[in-house]
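Table S4 entry, DUF2997 domain-containing protein.
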Amino acid sequence: METLEFIIYPDGRVQEKVTGIVGASCAEVTAAIEAQLGQVVSQEPTSEFFAQPNTISSTQSQSAFSEW
C-alpha cells in the first residue's frame, strides 16, 4: 500500500515520509506537493528507494515428453 505521511511542526517545517513506493518513482509522486510546500531542505532515501521493482516475464517453454 502506498502511503504519504506528513508531520507539520510548530515552526512550520513539514516532514514527509513515503512508504510503499519502490524505486525513484516516489519523487514523481511527491513533486507537485513539494512544489506547493516550498523549499526542500533535505532528503533521506529509504531502502525502498534503492529497491528494484519486481518484474514478471512471461516466457513459455514447451517441453515434449511421452508417458511411457
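The radius of gyration is 21 Å.
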